[in-house]
Amino acid sequence: MNSNQVKGTAKDIKGKVQQDIGEATGDVGEQIKGVGNQIAGKVQKGVGNAQEAARDVADDTRDTARDVERDVKRDLDRDNRR
User: Fold this and answer.
1) Which of 13, 20, 22, 38 could make an SS bond with 31 (beta carbons 3.0 to 4.6 A apart)?
2) In this predicted model, what pLDDT tens digit does every residue of 55-66 receive, in sequence order?
């Protein structure tokens, strides 16, 4: 979990609380602000999710490249011994 995921979740929760308070007090402006914060939080969390996915792909690609390099070196060493 990265900071955008955490901050986005917190902003989403804050917005829900803000919306609920606005509904309880009849403050439409507070309700609108709350919904806005929920949207902003969901977007930020989505950015964090995308960052995490990109990091995972990069890690997998790096691991695959290392495996291929190791296999090629092993095959070349084996061919050179023949």
Assistant:
1) 22
2) 999 999 999 999
